[in-house]
Amino acid sequence: MSNTLDNTTPGRALITGASAGIGARYAHHLARRGHDLTLVARNADRLEALAGRLRADTGRDVRVRVADLSNAPDLARVEQELRDDTTLTMLVNNAGIGSVAPLLQSDPAQMQAMIDLNVTALTRLTMAVVPGFVARGHGTLINIASIVALHPEMLNGVYGASKAYVLGYSQSLRHELADKGLRIQAVLPGATGTEFWDLAGKPASELPAGIVMSADDMVQAALAGLDQGEFVTIPALADPGLWQRLEDARQALGPLLSHNAPAPRYGIQAPGATGTNG
Ligand SMILES: NC(=O)c1ccc[n+]([C@@H]2O[C@H](COP(=O)([O-])OP(=O)(O)OC[C@H]3O[C@@H](n4cnc5c(N)ncnc54)[C@H](OP(=O)(O)O)[C@@H]3O)[C@@H](O)[C@H]2O)c1
pLDDT tens across 52-72, in order? Predict the structure, then answer.
């Protein structure tokens, strides 16, 4: 894909879910890379404390936007800002919640809230910012998915499916926008040591230490992957050839999936193809 960017000024990055965990580490590293920031989350105290530290440490302009992205009026406010702010060069769609509960023990309202945040908000924020990126001829979209996009069986099924959506949406955006100067990255973290796990129902301290990466290492690896032009970054995967083999198999399937007749193994004979001419 084309990675044509105006790199003369880093511009402003808007980060959702910036008050804690992975989002807060993105804020830290992007400010050090020279980005001004707009930090979005619900917890005003945490956002203000982080913004204050970043202003003091880096001298960047850091704005705070308190918003519940699963609430329609709050989401609309952030969408409007994404449309209006022509200094934006990056959106990090990071805010998300998960669950470890099996489907039969899950609360439908909680599953809906997960879809509202992980899917609906991410979709709408992307649709708000991309036209400006296209008009300006550059922009970076980072979508935080998860390795459960590839293995929805690992945790709660709605969570896995929501992250498969983020990957599929990113693949489609990359396909549609490849020649528009946009840089698009889908990040698939494995288990990362944040409050995510407490909220999901199983503290990270209960996971095998060997599978849990620190949020700071995860974000540094993801930004290194961005710099290297990766579309999909899986920070823990040592052999990127494994991902490529999966991707090659997917691409090979593409032309074989739609045909005017069912596959022979189903034994359905098309009209006029009975072999008896009658
Ligand atoms: N931790 C992992 O193992 C892991 C692995 C793979 C992928 N991920 C993904 O990484 C992303 C970040 O997760 P994390 O591990 O950093 O979790 P975290 O520490 O719980 O942080 C989540 C962030 O999202 C914000 N948020 C939650 N609900 C929100 C809402 N309704 N509106 C606006 N902001 C909201 C939270 O802030 P407020 O509470 O202040 O709103 C917080 O800033 C998520 O998309 C998650 O699915 C995490």
Answer: 999 999 999 999 999 999 999
Res 3: pLDDT? 37
Q: Which residue from 48, 162, 196 has its CB within 8 A of the most atoms of ligand 1, so it is best to mutate?
A: 196
Whether 4 is in a domain gets the answer no
95 CA distance to ligand 1 centroid (A)?
4
- Distance, in Å, from the CA atom of 185 to the CA atom of 233, rounded to the nearest integer, reads 7
* Residues spanned by the domain of 58: 12-266
- Output the domain CATH number for residue 85: 3.40.50.720
- Residue 165 is among the residues annotated as catalytic for this protein: no
Q: How many domains does the chain have?
A: 1
| Choice from 123, 194, 213 to test ligand 1 binding pocket (greatest atom count within 8 A of CB) | 194
Q: Tell me how crowded residue 227 is: count the other CB atoms within 10 A of its CB.
A: 9
In a domain, 211, yes or no: yes
